[in-house]
Amino acid sequence: MSCRRAAFVLAVCAGGLFAGIVPAASGGLTIISQSATADARDQKVIFELTFNHPPDFTTVDSRGRAQDAFQYEIDPNSLDINQSSFLNIRSVIRGSEIGNGNVLPIRDGFQSGVDPNPAAGGWGPVRGTVPFTLTGSRLTFAPTFSDLDARDGAFAYRVFTTNYGATASEASGRSISLPPAMQAGVAMLSLIAATAIFHRRHRRKSRA
What we know:
Layout: H1 3-13, E1 22-23, E2 31-39, E3 44-51, E4 68-75, E5 91-94, E6 103-108, E7 126-135, E8 138-141, H2 145-148, E9 155-163, E10 166-175, E11 177-178, H3 180-207
């Protein structure tokens, strides 16, 4: 299998969806790429989010709004979040509540009532938290299906970034749960692609 073919198959099988990213006029933190890949074996969803620069989640203005923030809104019962009502959102991942912490709060939608805490942003009570890793401009985290109220790991979602409360960019997509057998296939394709690239580079060095 050629490197190009392996990379293409890997992209098709990866499961995370990349959607059109719409930057807003306000500037600030924007999304460069994003994906959400459901792992049926471990019952988790792997989120990856790459920004245009390392985010500053700790600086706030006089109104308590973070310089950089993001939010995911998740509807497990929709094929397109943009056609879904806010009333159908089952969970919300609140990047604006990170502050100096090392976990992301995950809140209910409106079904369980509204949390009166101003930090809740008008959403429901906290249903769980998930640790995250921030490496430069790349953020990753992996909540469980239960955390997201997404029984099979399939859901439509919207993610947007804000700069002191003003929307800076937005993207939407749908996560598709991969069965364990397909996950093993994706891992094998990754190994094949990496091996092919290694041998290709080795041949080039040998010819030099």
